[in-house]
Design brief:
325 residues, alpha/beta
Length: 325
């Protein structure tokens, strides 16, 4: 198969590219000329410099492709319009470019659990639940999903919602490993927030399954690992994997809000988007972000291979081998 991957130079995207190449597919990565291509170096991939922002060159980029994997998107922005432009607008432009491509076999949009919103009353979210995003980011991911699904009668499309993703090359959850390496487990409040997780290798397996299966057309799937975990448990598993003795430090919610306010003030001065803003804090303080993978298992044959213990051992080993710890 010929596959075009947007966001292919990122943590998840580069892992997907490697898996596609391993399976014998031809891969083109849509990247910006200033993109950091460290994870794609020395891989037999082609590059397209078409613009998702302006739409320039997109029809040529998607021409002749069997699969389109759309992973690119804005996870942080200075304002709402930045999230709209970086998620909804670019998705709409890519879809419009795909409409004349009669040979397209699947358009795979990798969205986020944020589009569905947090789990309520301790019950994992399913695909039949009404979405209730609580952040601007989540609202924009949901709006992009609707753009994709609105063309389901014209194009073979599927929407995927991963929860928090971890594994080699990830820098977001790296901070937890770094803290454990210092002997600390930092948790928010009581640390009892229940979440779903997925190892990046399991996620990309699910992404490819969704492309391969005609049963996925026009549908939405959560792609998560098995089980639900709180941050106390996650910290203990990381400590066990790294053979570290730790102490647990609980961060009060008011301190998180204060840190968010300070970072946003700095962002106003620098003109750069804040990593920790009110939007992000609103997501972090929810009691649960659980989602069910049963539909993906039943309809796609999705079968996560990594337990949390196995996943954090493999991830911590990679961090050490690459000098991140």
């Amino acid at each position: 198969m010929k596959a075009l991957v947007t966001g292919g130079n990122g943590f998840i995207g580069s892992t997907l590219v490697e898996k596609l190449l391993h399976q014998g597919h031809q891969v083109t990565c849509l990247v910006r000329r200033q993109s950091d291509l460290r994870w794609l170096q020395n891989l037999p991939v082609a590059y397209s410099y078409a613009s998702l922002s302006s739409g320039e060159g997109l029809e040529q980029a998607v021409a002749g492709m069997d699969w389109i994997f759309h992973l690119a998107g804005a996870t942080k922005a200075r304002n709402r319009q930045g999230y709209v432009d970086g998620n909804v607008t670019i998705t709409r432009r890519l879809l419009q470019a795909c409409r004349p491509q009669l040979g397209l076999k699947k358009f795979v949009y990798v969205s986020s659990q944020a589009a569905a919103g947090p789990s309520l009353a301790g019950v994992p979210c399913t695909e039949t639940d009404e979405p209730h995003p609580i952040s601007i980011y989540g609202e924009c991911k949901l709006a992009a999903e609707k753009e994709v699904l609105s063309l389901s009668r014209e194009l073979p499309v599927v929407v995927l919602r991963p929860p928090s993703v971890y594994g080699p090359r990830d820098r977001d959850i790296l901070v937890y490993f770094q803290n454990v390496n210092r002997g600390l487990v930092l948790v928010l409040g009581k640390g009892d927030q229940q979440i779903s997780l997925v190892h990046v290798s399991d996620l990309v397996d699910g992404i490819i399954l969704a492309a391969e299966q005609s049963a996925s057309n026009g549908k939405v799937f959560f792609l998560s690992g098995d089980g639900y975990y709180d941050w106390n448990t996650i910290g203990r598993e990381i400590a066990a994997a790294m053979k570290k003795k730790t102490i647990t430090i609980r961060t009060p919610l008011w301190l998180l809000h204060l840190a968010s306010w300070a970072e946003c003030a700095v962002a106003q001065l620098t003109g750069k988007p804040a990593l920790l803003n009110a939007d992000k804090v609103r997501e972090m303080v929810q009691p649960g972000w659980m989602c069910s993978n049963q539909a993906a298992k039943q309809e796609l044959g999705f079968a996560p291979q990594y337990t949390l213990a196995q996943g954090v051992r493999q991830t911590s080993r990679w961090y050490r081998e690459n000098g991140w710890l």
